[in-house]
Design goal:
With about 425 residues, the chain is of the alpha+beta class. It has helices spanning about 15-20, 40-50, 90-95, 120-140, 155-160, 165, 200-210, 215-235, 255, 280-295, 300-315, 315-320, 320-335, 400-410; strands at about 5, 25-35, 60, 65-70, 80, 100-105, 105-115, 195-200, 245-250, 265-270, 270, 345-350, 360-370, 375-385, 385-395, 415-420, 425. The strands form 3 sheets. Strands 8, 9, 10, 11, 12, 14, 15, 16 and 17 form a 9-stranded mixed β-sheet that branches. Strands 5-6-7-2-13 form a 5-stranded mixed β-sheet, with helices on one face. It is globular, with a radius of gyration of 21 Å.
């Protein structure tokens, strides 16, 4: 019997081509429960969800012209979490399964190779997995709401579609922009440092509203201010400074009403050129908000989608062998990818759960691994009364997160710090 297979969606095509021996684009979502995880029950929940999420239970395969995803013959085995978050997904692992389901004490974590899905799709899977686990463990009835899917329902066609192809307008947007500052540091090859800032959500909202901003704009502006100060300390000559831009992923489901569980995100790079002068935080908030509003319209984003989709549909390009496509996509990624931003700041927003689940859940988190070109990354999710800001890096120096979280404290936003780089936590 032949196995079910999927073409990679438009955003996913680049990830297998640009992965390296020491880097693969992955992210993690996790839920911390009120009691220790039962591995046997978790394994049963993973098995129960396999028919419902066919685009998640897959492995990466290599074709003559394209990579593709092939269904698994059996669900992945849950494993105890080890080492540090987002350890490298080697080729051998990706050719076996493109996701990991792990547990550690009271935490369930799922890590995805980014060719499967984005943060929204990953959180949908995690919430449904946690709901099924709690139903099996405690017999609690959990309704299919707040992003949780009915695990007994057949997958819907719209959940498996490549929404990029459906929402292109055919008008390619010329989005040429200057390269941004590349931050450096002492590279760590065998460890990822994770620093989590735990912030009272109400305090964060108050600070954002005080600056006439959304939480995403406010955090991006504070991050941009931290990077501007970082660069100024290292480059006193203003004329030699590089643009500072924060990459912000845009969830296109909200613009186009998509229900896909696959990738449907594009990024924008709002920022400033420090050669033009200094910026207050209020000015940075205005700049970030204006650029995101102007560039994040359905019309503009459709043009960006077209810029990615159109080459994929050209017959001559489709006929190019995969090994040559990998070279071409690597060159394009180097020229147009991460060089346009200094750091990624991805905010999943408030994670909501049905009331029946909330007594069993303490926190929900989202972590994106470092990108290939820059050493730091930042991901945000709110749950209950707290917002979890996860900053991860593959360099030794914690300077950026120190500047960023210190600036939040200076603005009156309390921050509790947890880190995997030392045993104790501190509260600011």
């Amino acid at each position: 019997m032949s196995k079910y297979w999927l073409r990679l969606d438009n955003a996913a095509l680049i990830f297998p081509a640009i992965r390296r021996r020491r880097w693969a684009n992955a992210f993690r979502v996790s839920v911390t429960l009120a009691e220790p995880v039962d591995p046997a029950v978790l394994q049963q929940a993973v098995e129960d969800l396999m028919p419902r999420f066919p685009s998640m239970y897959v492995r990466l395969k290599t074709g003559v012209f394209w990579y593709y995803l092939e269904e698994l013959s059996a669900p992945p085995a849950v494993r105890e979490d080890f080492a540090y978050p987002l350890t490298l997904m080697q080729d051998k692992e990706l050719h076996t399964c493109c996701l990991r389901v792990m547990y550690f004490r009271d935490r369930i974590a799922v890590e995805f190779f980014h060719s499967l899905t984005d943060g929204t799709g990953g959180m949908t899977y995690l919430k449904t997995l946690a709901a099924r686990y709690l139903a099996l463990k405690y017999g609690v009835e959990i309704p299919a709401e707040e992003g949780i899917l009915d695990w007994q329902e057949a997958p819907r066609p719209e959940e498996l579609e490549d929404s990029f192809v459906r929402n292109t307008n055919g008008m390619v947007l010329n989005d040429h922009e200057p390269d941004a500052l590349v931050m450096g540091g002492t590279r760590e090859w065998d460890f990822l440092h994770l620093t989590t800032g735990i912030i009272p959500t109400e305090a964060l909202l108050e600070a954002a509203h005080r600056h006439n901003s959304t939480v995403t704009v406010f955090l991006a502006a504070v991050m941009e201010q931290a990077i501007l100060e970082y660069q100024a300390d290292r480059c006193p000559n203003r004329k030699r400074r590089k643009p500072v831009k924060v990459t912000v992923p845009i969830n296109l489901r909200r613009l186009y009403g998509s229900k896909t569980l696959r990738n449907f995100v594009l990024t924008l790079n709002p920022g400033v050129d420090p050669r033009m002068g200094d910026y207050t935080l209020e000015e940075l908030c205005k700049v970030m908000a204006a650029q995101l509003a102007a560039e994040g319209t359905p019309q503009q984003m459709a043009g960006r989608i077209a810029a990615n989709v159109t080459p994929q549909q050209i017959a001559a390009i489709r006929a190019v062998p995969l090994w040559l496509k990998n070279i071409i996509m690597g060159i394009i990624y180097t020229q147009r990818g991460e060089t346009k931003g200094c750091i990624n700041l991805s905010n999943l927003g408030r994670v909501r759960l049905p009331e029946a689940m909330t007594p069993y859940v303490k926190r929900m988190e989202f972590i994106i691994g470092p990108q290939r070109s820059y050493p730091n990354n930042c991901s945000v999710a709110s749950f209950g009364d707290e917002t979890f800001v996860n900053m991860i890096r593959n360099i030794r120096e914690p300077e950026l997160e120190r500047r960023f979280f210190s600036r939040l404290v200076e603005l009156g936003v309390p921050v509790a710090i947890e880190t995997n780089s030392r045993e104790s936590s501190q509260r600011s």
